[in-house]
Design brief:
By secondary structure, this protein is of the alpha+beta class. Helices cover 43% and strands 15% of the residues.
Length: 240
């Protein structure tokens, strides 16, 4: 049964537009998505009411995808990097969601079904691997809305850049994404994301015409967590 929604006034204005089949502007949509992300952590039952009302429409009409789960992919990755001996304790080649903590069961059942190949878990852990002397995990979830900044403030200047930024911003450990400058000379042959410091990453985005360098600012100042976040983003966007 859905719980009645008691939305902040600013959010009610945005959902009111959607209810009246009026299109919110991009800033309003980003505020709405950021609110939903915070709500998922603070009050999951209320979030599910919000999800049931707006998830399909936000995806079909605006391309924004909300997760139906209280605990999702970031929580799964965080569990794996904090439990490197997981496969040693579960040596079978085929695993089940019940081999993992209960809070991950819903997510795992949806994404993997009743059986999980241990090789998939091994591959994920290799992706997230690093020095065992350094603290594991991902940067803490942000408490405020993600901020997007574009060169000369023009979010539509370069085709595809805005959409790319918003996909990065769906990760809770990202606090700000900011375009920096164009690459001089020829376009980059390979788009990538790399660690620049303990609390920020650098990326290259290329469309048909140009390559743009940008920064990804993280929610925490921790070099190893920055490495983990970088690996996750590279795997998500570039498969490496």
């Amino acid at each position: 049964m859905n719980i009645p929604l008691h939305l902040p006034e600013e959010i009610k204005i945005i959902t009111g537009k959607i209810d009246r089949q009026l299109r919110p502007d991009e800033d309003e949509l980003l505020k709405l998505i950021a609110y939903a992300q915070r709500l998922r952590r603070k009050s999951y039952d209320t979030y599910r009411s919000f999800y049931d009302l707006y998830a399909d429409l936000l995806y079909k009409e605006y391309g924004h995808c909300l997760t139906p789960f209280r605990y999702g992919r970031d929580d799964f990755f965080d569990y794996l990097v904090q439990n490197w001996d997981f496969l040693e304790n579960h040596p079978d080649s085929i695993l089940a969601p019940n081999d993992f903590p209960a809070f991950l069961h819903e997510y795992l059942l949806f994404n993997y079904g009743q059986t999980i190949n241990s090789q998939e878990i091994e591959s994920l852990q290799k992706l997230l691997a690093g020095s065992p002397q350094i603290e594991w995990g991902l940067p803490v979830p942000r408490q405020k809305e993600v901020v997007y900044k574009y060169e000369k403030g023009n979010s539509f200047k370069e085709l595809g850049l805005k959409s790319h930024f918003e996909k990065i911003g769906r990760y809770d450990f990202v606090s700000r994404v900011q375009s920096y400058r164009y690459l001089r000379g020829n376009k980059s042959s390979t788009d990538k994301i790399e660690v620049l410091g303990p609390d920020y990453l650098g990326g290259i985005f290329t469309n048909k015409e140009k390559s743009i360098y940008y920064y990804i600012f993280l929610t925490e100042n921790n070099y190893q967590k920055a490495v983990n976040a970088c690996q996750i983003l590279n795997n998500e966007f570039y498969g490496r």
